């Protein structure tokens, strides 16, 4: 994008003053190179978001922002229900509560080196991956309701994981206010065989090691040391979330005019929070969040079983679980006044700073772990929420790399086998049901996540703590 | 003019576009384009047929509903569809989806489809009389 479209506030803060139908100004956080490389449609989409009723403060875009559906991926926007604020199915996205969780293994990289292949096979065997895979857990109607109401808490009660996992999951593993009765039969049907499955596309399960520490003090709180092996799981609410998204996107798009809402783009589909549709979506979307939390919890259980089979006695403890496609009701202070706001984060990670009451006591002094997934074969990062992030973007940070090229182009440029062989030479083992899928997800098809993370750090959205390098990647 | 389909580049996902002499053909071609996001069409044997129908007040919404109906049938039946028969009667679409259960060895599915979206959603008749039906698919 052209720099002269913006009012530059500092090195990483680019403001778009309110004009036309915009109710508030917009801000993109990025360094100059990222702004220049950013898709112009991010500008258009974030200014569209700024036109929505009841939006407060600013419409924000994170350093990894790219062209999304209505909202840019990397968009953050908060709405006040008392001021006609809206909730948007497009602002949450199809994959409700897609997110990342990272587990400590207590192992060092050299302890895992010899077991890498066996571990890759075992994880790939136990964690259902890709289209056509089904989980071993099939929920009847009553169990489905319990799962949709209980999230990871339900999963732990069923024996999938440990009670200690819950305090290290957003919402303590259970999103309150979920209304399973708002989840359609079709959405439930799509989920019937998909509990505990990874999905496909950019979803993965990786064994990684800490290859660099940036902040020793916070790394201590996070119990991360150079050479430590961790496991990261990236996936979401599976078919259930996709179906909720599909149904409400259509409903909100076609009913917006009845609510007096003008949509500059139908994909911005939304409804007033204080409307029947708004409340139905809120209840269904929260149930979708619980589905994602339960799903990642079950995959955690399968991962623990895989480690136990290959390296007996390994204890996997959860560092944290973040969601990056959500809308959550949170208290925020604006101009000295506490307000309860519906914060949409579409491809953006919540990043509560030190002292936040939502954080477990062991992490409260450090700030919330912010887990940033790389692409297959590239580094991932762990950051920590900062105090200033609250004033920056409602305590939000980036979520990942974002694609640099289309799947079509990637498929033409690479072959899956060649990608797998090249990564193997770098010591990274890939397991995937589809060579074409691997080619479409080739490392170079994604942007460099390092520059995104640097910009987030520089902008004060979150602080860099550690870098993770992959050893094994199970790819959907 | 012949019925045909193509994929459109999209940053994170992929677009599908079908062309046909009739509206029905364009809808069939858009569906073929969507199936080929997952696997090569010639790998899908048309062994089993599923009847579906949908209804929408506008043509672009009808395309959206049509593609999302296929996504739903793919997901819940664990099937892939490589051939389609479509009849459109005013706001109603009646169709047969022909395909088979996913065989991961044979089909090697590249990616799972989350849903059809409003992005680039258009159904129109081009100047040469051909029908065009397109949208971006979230994968």
Structure description:
By secondary structure, chain A is of the alpha+beta class. Chain A has one domain: tRNA-splicing ligase RtcB, CATH 3.90.1860.10. Chain A has 16 helices and 19 strands. Chain A has helices at residues 32-37, 40-49, 109-113, 116-126, 141-157, 163-166, 185-191, 216-221, 238-255, 276-310, 361-364, 389-393, 407-413, 416-425, 435-440, 449-458; strands spanning 7-10, 13-16, 26-29, 55-66, 73-79, 86-88, 99-108, 204-213, 228-235, 270-272, 317-323, 325-334, 337-346, 349-350, 369-372, 380-385, 396-397, 429-431, 462-475. In chain A, strands 7, 8, 9, 11, 15, 16, 18 and 19 form an eight-stranded mixed beta sheet that branches. Chain A has a seven-stranded mixed beta sheet with strand order 1-2-3-4-5-13-12, sandwiched between helices. In chain A, helix 5 (141-157) crosses helix 10 and helix 9 runs antiparallel to helix 10 (276-310). The model of chain A has no long low-confidence stretch (mean pLDDT 95). With 139 residues, chain B is of the alpha+beta class. Chain B has one domain (4-138): 3-Layer(bab) Sandwich (Archease, Possible Chaperone, Chain: A, domain 1), CATH 3.55.10. Chain B has three helices and eight strands, in the order E-E-H-E-H-E-E-H-E-E-E. Chain B has helices spanning 23-38, 59-77, 104-107; strands at 4-9, 14-20, 48-55, 79-89, 92-101, 115-116, 122-125, 131-138. In chain B, helix 1 (23-38) packs parallel to helix 2 (59-77). The termini of chain B are far apart. The relative contact order of chain B is 0.26. Chains A and B meet through helix 7, helix 9, helix 13 and helix 15 of A and helix 2 and strand 6 of B.
Largest interface: A-B, 48 and 36 residues
Give the biggest beta sheet of chain B.
Answer: 5 strands, antiparallel
Strand content of chain A: 25-35%
CATH class term of chain A? Alpha Beta
Query: Rough shape of chain A?
Result: globular
- Assembly state of the chains shown: heterodimer
First CA to last CA of chain B: what distance?
30 Å
What is the total number of structural domains of chain A?
1
Q: Note the total helix count of chain B.
A: 3
Q: What form of chain B results from the Cα inertia axes?
A: globular
| Averaged pLDDT of chain A | 95
What's the CATH H-level homologous superfamily of chain B?
Answer: Archease domain
Give the strand tally of chain A. Answer: 19
